[in-house]
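Dear colleagues,

I hope this message finds you well. In preparation for our joint manuscript, I am sending the ATP-binding cassette domain-containing protein (Endosaccharibacter trunci) sequence together with its predicted structure, so that both groups work from identical material. I would be grateful if you could confirm receipt.
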Amino acid sequence: MALRYPGRDPNRGAVLQRISADIPSGGFRWVLGASGAGKSSLLRLLSLSLKPTSGQLEVLGVSVNRARRAALARLRRRTGTVFQDLRLLGELSVFDNVALRLRLDGLPEDRIELEVTEMLRFVGLGRKLDVRPHSLSGGEQQRVAVARAVVHRPPLLLADEPTGALDEKQAIRLISLFEELNQMGSTVLVATHNEALVRRFGHPALVLERGRLVSHG
Ligand SMILES: Nc1ncnc2c1ncn2[C@@H]1O[C@H](COP(=O)(O)OP(=O)(O)OP(=O)(O)O)[C@@H](O)[C@H]1O
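The corresponding structure tokens are as follows:
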């Protein structure tokens, strides 16, 4: 598949070109490449924030090109996403940001209380449940975004630079959390520049170079 952003200078070529890969269900893949190589764009396609300009995309067995809106909405609910710009809801507390997805899924409030509190404790924010995201540090906000992405144990987790604002110990803790989710069956893709993390945890990588996939295994 290929991706062009509307309005981008046509002489600069497509942002993603001839991407062809099959990520097995239950796999863990790093998404690597220099700044501007197309990592975020690839994750935006997989999270259905964008559609490919050409080619076929299948996510969790659903053909994105052909799927109806209801099927795409179901697919979005089965995906957890950590966006590079986090996209926390500023008017909601930390607790409510993380609880939102579980509420949309109709979970009973006592169960939500339990799951959200446990998840926020795990990421070290057990004392910040009631504050608004803007009063947190960058690293704390990043951990809220991660908690929100994984709290419903999604079959697909997409994380774009989820550890950029964290120290090494916290980064290791979060990737370990992703590994746990992966061991329970979720497919996990993590875009990162952190080579130390990649070396430490192993796992195959999708490597992008100027919009092309140069390695995927
Ligand atoms: N909304 C957009 N409109 C036009 N061009 C875009 C848009 N978003 C990204 N691009 C371009 O697409 C290319 C790939 O960008 P992308 O953000 O996917 O790279 P990246 O590998 O995630 O980079 P980084 O590591 O810096 O986050 C870049 O040339 C960028 O300028």
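For the figure legend, we might mention the following. The chain has a mean pLDDT of 94. Helices lie at 39-46, 69-77, 94-104, 109-122, 138-150, 168-183, 195-201.

With kind regards,
E.M.
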